[in-house]
Amino acid sequence: MNQAGIHDGMWVVGADAGDYVDQYGDIVTGDLVVVEQSRYQGSEREITVKEIHFFRDRYELRPVSDNEEHEPIAVPHDHSPDDDREVKIIGIVLTAYADLKSRRK
């Protein structure tokens, strides 16, 4: 997410996705979201930050990064997975900050 100003070692502060929608309205293209991917009935989980883009038949969760290893995730609107993976938007990024004091260690 370095192209979005979020670098290694920074903290991300977010709001619960449901609470955010209730308070501020729909998530829109370009929002930074906290994504949880799980497999094997939740025994393997990964949490990451992506930029969301909506399309007629799907939404895409895109990395905003120079790292070519980070790939977008396409999710059909019917949420039918093409593998054992479940993808959920669990939060909306509100801010990010660096803990400068911990850099002295």
From TrEMBL:
SUPFAM superfamilies: LexA/Signal peptidase
InterPro entries: LexA/Signal_pep-like_sf, Peptidase_S24_S26A/B/C
Chain ranges of the Peptidase S24/S26A/S26B/S26C domain: 1-93
Signal peptide: none
Protein's name according to its UniProt entry: Peptidase S24/S26A/S26B/S26C domain-containing protein
